[in-house]
Amino acid sequence: MSVHEEGLRDVVVVGGGAAGLSAALTLSRARQAVTVIDAGAPRNAPAEGVHGLLGLEGISPVELLRRGREEVRGYGGEIVTGEVVDVERTATGFTLRTRNGASFGARRLVIATGLVDELPEVPGVREQWGRGVLHCPFCHGWEVRDRRIGILVTGPQSVHKAFLFRQWSADVVLFSNDHELEPQEQSQLAALGVAVIDGTVTGLDVEGDALRGVRLADGRAIDVDAIVVATRMVARTEPFEGIGLEPTEHPMGAFIEADEFGRSTVPGVWVAGNASDLGAQVSHAVAAGTRAAQHLISEVVMAGLAPIDAPVPASSEPAQEGA
């Protein structure tokens, strides 16, 4: 990587998951001086495999990121381990500081910090997260097909999870966990053959590292092979408050607003992956990282590297796509 003499990178990518590495790969191939700063805490680390990613179906999350880092470095990109805790605007762009005291300068930023799943405080849920406890039917439905699936109600999205997982198994039950269901939801669940089990869920039964069932306050134990929770998903935004980026509330959680190309409301800052799209799978995150990088480059070219605060003609298409 060739960094400008004053140590200023063309772009710093915050977050080295699928979206961040995809953006960094595209930027590096566009001859940008790029540094990826990654805290090393990918959301999908507990999962055995990544699914729905064409050509890489079932690849382990760890292996996917290893390959991605290698590819970025192959085009001169730099990858640094660190957690960004503060970002401020400067005359030339941005200064980022990490928890260990390192400082990085960048003309532009790509934020790909992902999100945090807020799990219900039910004993066993956190320990089984990503294995016996699931959230996405398209990520995990095939792996639990035709098995006993329990839906733990945690909020308004939970009943919808039951509708979806019914596609993969006829043996789906819903634990109301003291939440009141709407009459329409009750009739729809009944039409699908999804039984509703009332009562307070007090914990999960786990044998070794395998989920066996659900315990209720009245002493009942219901056997299941998997539990589905609808988590509240919150983008990591704290380090960017100093440059004016704040989370936008959503029924599913909170995200960073960006346009369809990844351009945020803050000049010079782009967003990709779960930070701006709470429902994005890995395949979506990869595409979003590439798209944001392409449009960032197009904007740089069109602006002639003008100061970030100068008006920039919006581009609806990158210089070249699909090559």
Model description:
- It contains 7 helices and 19 strands.
- It is an alpha/beta fold and 323 residues long.
- The protein folds into 2 domains: 182 residues, 3-Layer(bba) Sandwich (FAD/NAD(P)-binding domain); 110 residues, FAD/NAD(P)-binding domain (3-Layer(bba) Sandwich).
- The strands form 4 sheets. Strands 1, 2, 3, 4, 5, 6 and 19 form a 7-stranded mixed sheet that branches. It has a 5-stranded parallel sheet with strand order 8-15-9-10-11.
- A hairpin with a 2-residue loop joins β17 and β18.
- The chain starts with 7 loop residues before the first strand and ends in a 20-residue tail after the last helix.
- The C terminus is likely disordered.
Q: Can you tag this structure with a few keywords?
A:
FAD/NAD(P)-binding domain; about 325 residues; elongated; 5-stranded parallel beta sheet; alpha/beta
- Into how many domains do the coordinates divide? 2
Number of E-state strands: 19
Overall outline: elongated
Question: Alpha-carbon distance between the termini?
Answer: 23 Å
The CATH superfamily of the largest domain is FAD/NAD(P)-binding domain
Q: How much strand?
A: 25-35%
CATH class type of the largest domain = Alpha Beta
Radius of gyration: 22 Å
Estimated structural class:
alpha/beta
- Average residue pLDDT: 92
Identify the CATH architecture of the largest domain.
3-Layer(bba) Sandwich
